Amino acid sequence: MSEQKPEGVRYEDEPAQALPEYAERVLDVAELIPPGRVMTYGDVAEWLEQGGPRQVGRVMALYGGAAPWWRVVRADGVLLPGHEQRALGHYRAEGTPLKEASRAAEGHLPRIDMRRARWDGGDRAEGHT
After folding, report:
1. Is the pTM of this model over 0.90?
2. How far is C-alpha 49 from the geometric centre of its chain's CA atoms?
3. pLDDT at position 9
4. Section 61-83 average pLDDT
5. Roughly how many angstroms between the first and final C-alpha of the chain, as a whole number?
6. By the 8 A CB rule, do 64 and 72 touch?
7. Which residue has the higher pLDDT, 29 or 4?
8. Distance between CA atoms of 5 and 127, rounded to whole angstroms?
């Protein structure tokens, strides 16, 4: 009977698998986003001219732990479920514009002020691929 290992687990004697090319490109864009600014999943897909918000979200979920994952966000500015407090710490440290939640809001968590925090790539947009 062979032992089943959890998905994504690598034993020390196994070679590391190369990161898929699309994932590398998504993570490269995440690294370009300046502190205090954000791009939506759709913005990243549009920047790359490939995939869509769901594909970018999947890449971030699987491979984004070493990248500034908190800078790639939902279009509505809601903090990433399950990671709200960690993300909020990053946003506050970087000075990311936030909209404070009303007392009536569930969880009283702020949202990202997308109008002020969204980054369009600025000068770095030229020559991206």
Report:
1. no
2. 17
3. 45
4. 95
5. 47
6. yes
7. 29
8. 42
